[in-house]
Amino acid sequence: MEKQSDLLLDIQHLHTAYRLQGKFYDAADDVNLTLKRDEILAIVGESGCGKSTIASSIIGLYDHQNTKVTGDILYNELNLVGLNESLFNKIRGDKIGMIFQDPLASLNPLMRVGDQVAETLYYHTDMDEKARKARVIELFNQVGMPNPEEMYMMYPHELSGGLRQRVVIAMAIACKPEIIIADEPTTALDVTIQAQILDLLQDIQKQSHSGIVLITHDLGVVAETADEVAVMYAGQIVEKSDVKTIFEHPLHPYTRSLLNSMPQNEGDSDEELLVIHGTVPSLKNMPRTGDRFAARIPWIPASAHEENPQVHEVEPGHWVRCTCWKSFHFEDQPAPQEVNSVSGE
Amino acid sequence: MSKEIIQVKDLKVHYPIRSGFWNRITDYVRAVDGINLTINEGETYGLIGESGSGKSTTGKAIVGIEKVTSGQIFYKGQDITKASNRRKLNYNKDGQMIFQDSMSSLNPRKRIEDIIAEPIRNFENLTTDQERERVQELLDIVGMPSDAIYKYPHEFSGGQRQRIGVARAVATNPKLIIADEPTSALDLSVQAQVLNFMKNIQQQYNIAYLFISHDLGVIRHMSENIAIMNRGRLVELGTKDDIYKHPMHIYTKRLLSAIPKVDVEHRAEHKKHRLEVEAEYRNDQSKWYDKDGRVFPLQKLTTTHYVALPSAELNEMEGK
Predict the structure, then answer these.
(1) Per-residue pLDDT reduced to its tens digit, A128-178
(2) Does residue B178 carry a pLDDT above 90?
(3) Number of CB pairs, chain A paired with chain B, less than 8 A apart
(4) Three-state DSSP string of A113-140
(5) Residue partners of A344: CB distance under 8 A and separation at least 6
């Protein structure tokens, strides 16, 4: 039973293009995604695949002169694409919170961290100064900072990386947003701190029933936290499914290659890691027709790819772009019999 | 069987903290505080630690670009702690380093040819033609196109730059390479490329690596022996199996349990285990660290496996 209001974000045919030397190039190309309440949606991909572009399009933080966003990003019937700035300022920080990768760069070095979090409350609530301070201390408690009163008076440089990220998270959740966008929230942190921050995000989500868009390149993080996963390559979503299917039964060649190029923590790993041929195309040189991943798997015949690859629902809730997965095999493996349906195992 | 190439004895690197009116030394930051380790010829030695644990300082001290406060470093049995000895023994040629950030470790104003040729020019007397041939050969080894020699670092992607860094490190046919987080800034597929190149080069030229990283997956993939560093000291030392299959110290267990696992089915159990270890780590500080918060000296557990525990604790464990 799905209520109407369970759908927090509905992204339809999103195109985000950046201007390079006078011409616009799509960095996000026809992206369709939905985010439900109580859901962690992970967007995975390597650098330059357009995952952060989606984040900045949702939250409306991009250079309006040199960026063209088309399509729909629906939040409660409200289209965030082309929304006027004063209206957006009310939503941003209030209904949609954002956590950036580098906590030091997203904090003001000249302001006490407590005041920075209180600033969000100043703009979005009608609390008085005392109430704001009390709320900030409550938030610091919630994100697991020791001695919140003391921390309130600190400057960003006095805090460790993990604590800084907690401040940023406190800022993002200050107004109890329905949507939290976390762009590589743990990339700059140690593994033990990373685990704590991810736990914290999950706890917050459970308490506030918000939806989280988690953008990351780390497949391990995805496997540990996400509910739904979208894999991106060269501006397009190539595979989308629930987290279990992505890891246990991946179909798209890119997803499978990526999983095989990861150093494993289990078992013996003396064999060579899989190297994907070639490099990720740059924005300007991205192929705009045909399968964009085709150049990286040259041993797959061109006839296996669709001329204009579309996303197909191969089983309920599992979407794959192009039909080349049916005849895909790794270079050192023999070609399989063409599969026409998704086998159980 | 295998010969030792590097032996580190009680290595200490302390940085002074100056304060007060006279700016006198009031205390020290004990970045590296008494480390012993041995690297064999042609092996990969993994050094794991979180940021601030002193792992990079250890690497820099071994290669000779960090001043050692006390302790000794032996290269093939000879003391190279002093700079003059390093010169005499040709250690500057035999020990090389690969840095984490390829952008800041390659001179942006130099062409790739000059970058890679620099160590060759320092140690060998080659004619221009011979030198160019050697540079081409090196680029070939790391899989770069031959026209790369006329380009500048900014014209390459991160993975390519890191491969140039590898080419420069192997230019002088070194016996030991200190790799300080060589792949942390790279994407997965590019990381795979660089790691495979490093492995191939090692097999071809019998190079020993000291592989410094915080990524336990990468270390597991690359190394045979592993040391875990915490607060400037080693908490555990052993073979790959010792560390990953039978971790003894709480800090090792904590690190291992914190790595995200690609096992969606059991992620709830994994999280529970992680929280248990975390709670144990927090509550039993006195058991694993002495009253000043220092790590205990290493105790021998088996012939390969060493753990930092007070001796009383060790006896108890053996009694069990």
Answers:
(1) 999 999 999 999 998 888 899 999 999 999 998 889 999 999 999 999 899
(2) yes
(3) 116
(4) HHHHHHHHHHHHCCCCHHHHHHHHHHHH
(5) none
pLDDT tens across A245-291, in order? Answer: 999 999 999 999 998 888 876 555 566 788 888 778 888 888 888 88
Nearest Cα to B187, choosing from A231, A281, A46, A293?
Answer: A46
Cβ count within 10 A of residue A137: 19
Q: How close does chain B come to A311, measured CA to CA in Å?
A: 24
A180: nearest Cα among A269, A98, A240: A98
Q: Say if residues B35 and B62 touch (Cβ distance below 8 Å).
A: no
> Which chain B residues are within 8 Å of A206, Cβ to Cβ?
none
**What are the pLDDT digits (tens) for B192-202?**
888 988 998 89
Residues B220 and B272 in one domain: no
- What integer best gives the mean pLDDT of chain B? 88
B102 and B163 fall within a common domain: yes
Per the CB < 8 Å rule, is A247 touching B271?
no
Answer whether 0.90 is exceeded by the pTM.
Answer: no
Q: Which domains does chain A have, with CATH numbers?
A: 4-226 (3.40.50.300), 233-327 (no CATH)
Q: Does one domain contain both B53 and B38?
A: yes
Q: Are residues B122 and B267 in the same domain?
A: no
**B305 shares a domain with B285:** yes
Q: Is the ipTM of this complex over 0.90?
A: no
Closest-CA distance, A156 to chain B, in angstroms, reads 18
Residue whose structure tokens are 């090692």:
B202
Clarify whether residues B255 and B135 are in a common domain.
no
The domain in which residue B47 lies consists of: 4-240
Query: Which residue of chain A is at minimal alpha-carbon distance from B224?
Result: A270
The CA-based dihedral angle spanning residues B250, B251, B253, B257, taken in that order and rounded to the nearest 10 degrees: 130
Residues of B in contact with A192 (CB under 8 A): 50, 254-255, 258, 278
Specify whether the CB–CB gap between B91 and B172 falls below 8 A.
no
B263 closest CB neighbour out of A223, A262, A276: A223
How many domains would you assign to chain B?
A: 2
